[in-house]
Amino acid sequence: MKRKRPEEGQNILIQFWNCQLLKDHKIIKDDLWVRDGCILDPHALFFDENVAADVKVDCKGLLIAPGYIDVQINGGFGVDFSSDIESIETGIKSVCNKLLQYGVTSFCPTIVTSSKETYHQLLPRISKISKNTHAGATILGLHLEGPFISKEKKGAHKEVFIEALGPQGINKMNEHYGSLDSVRIVTLAPEQPYAMEAIKDLSKKGIAVSIGHTLASLDTAEEAARCGARFITHLFNAMLPFHHRDPGIVGLLTSDNIPEPIYFGIIADGIHTHPTALRIAHRSHPNGLVLVSDAIAALGLPSGKHCLGTVEVEIHDNMATVAGLKTLAGSIASLDYCVRQFKKFAGCSCVEALEAASLHPAQLLKISDHKGTLNYGADADIIILNDDLEIQATLIAGNLVWLNNSSTVAQEIFADYDQKMT
Question: Among candidates 186, 126, 420, 160, which has minimal Cα distance to 310?
Fold first, then answer.
């Protein structure tokens, strides 16, 4: 259900009451106050302004949490971010709106290994869209997954487009991508010659470097982390398996030879990662776990043939594979589904499951001062959930942008919300 644009209803003080809040790593009973798209400190309102709420929302005891942040998503609802060049403007806006039903309030559109020409056409178009105001999920910047990856661990990526870095390093990246201005994450294989120099340069530009699609040993991965790499792309997938004499990339989770703890992506769809492997990762380094959907264009659509970049993908038994092969090609899982599956498989708390899809990705991107949290001053990008962690409503900048029409309690909570906001 499409709702108001985020810029509407400004200067209105909203009080969400009779609710639970995910705050300071625990669930508490408290009210949430919002104005001008930000979460406010109620003490300042009472003692400095001495004002009452313009709108009061009875949340019926439901849980309010920060909106989900998906840092690896390839498309959805028939839209492929890596190939729908001519229609990308309308396509990505459609995805921005439809992701709201899954509680995703911001995301990084992910471009898989593609031709130089594709990057030069896509990146400026998506960058332009991300700067425009719209009612859907916020585009935080692009995640470029390739082409500077290992051919041996390419997964579903097209080998013909895989590139070596060479001595030009980041200069070659700039030339190949066209521009890095709209880029938030780059996934590369650190064993490539000149990769360490590129990691340093990308990190200086504020771009999060992720290790992925790689044959790297633990020593190489640790060197990459010391050079500035902060993330691991879909842990366990497209990398060497754990070995007791060389744990490989997985060893980064407990390494004491890196300057700061690493973050790592997990696709908790029950297909990409065995529940036992997921539990091992979570218990080894719970604060670094970042849930990602890795969803492709087939998200939200029935089984059949779809695409991931220039690769044809078949959907069967809730699994996406390269046509004619058994190679996994992204997922068709929504991020809210991954949150629920993660909680089930890992046996973790609601707090841990929710923070893995909100706080941790915000920390990875260094935006946790205003995203992924309900702290005072943060953006009021919030979701309302029931006890089963099913999305009841999604709000961006404090404005209702999606409502679960099949939920009676959600309908009751927001029955006259539009009228109050005007």
Answer: 160
The SS3 assignment for 396 reads: strand
Tokens 């013909």 correspond to what residue? 160
Can you tell me the mean pLDDT for 113-129?
Answer: 95
* 3-class DSSP state of 29: strand
| pLDDT of residue 26 exceeding 70 | yes
Catalytic residue among 294, 336, 379, 381: 294
Cα separation values, 154 from 112, 150, 157, 165, 313, Å: 10, 6, 5, 16, 15
Q: Is the pLDDT of residue 1 over 50?
A: no
Task: Tell me the two tokens of residue 335.
Answer: 């991020």
Q: What distance lies between CA 213 and its chain's CA centroid?
A: 19
The order of strands in the sheet holding 304-308 is 304-308, 311-316, 319-322
Q: Tell me: the pLDDT tens digits for 196-215?
A: 999 999 999 999 999 999 99
Residue 193 CA to residue 170 CA, distance in Å, equals 12
Q: What percent of the chain has pLDDT over 70?
A: 97
Q: What angle do CA 120, 121, 127 make, to 5 degrees?
A: 90
Q: Tell me, yes or no, if 294 is annotated catalytic.
A: yes
Rounded to whole angstroms, the Cα distance separating 278 from 208 reads 23
The 3-state DSSP class for residue 419 equals helix
Burial of 381 (0-12, 13-18, 19+ CB in 10 A): buried
Residue type, 92: I
Instruction: Determine the Cα–Cα distance for residues 413 and 393; give it in Å rounded to an integer.
Output: 10
Residues 6+ apart with CB under 8 A from 248: 216, 217, 218, 221, 239, 240, 241, 242
Q: 116 to each of 38, 120, 356, how far by Cα in Å?
A: 40, 6, 34
Give the rounded distance of the alpha carbon of 375 from its chain centre.
20
* pLDDT 10s digits, 295-321: 999 999 988 888 898 898 988 888 889
Q: Which two tokens mark 346? A: 């890992």
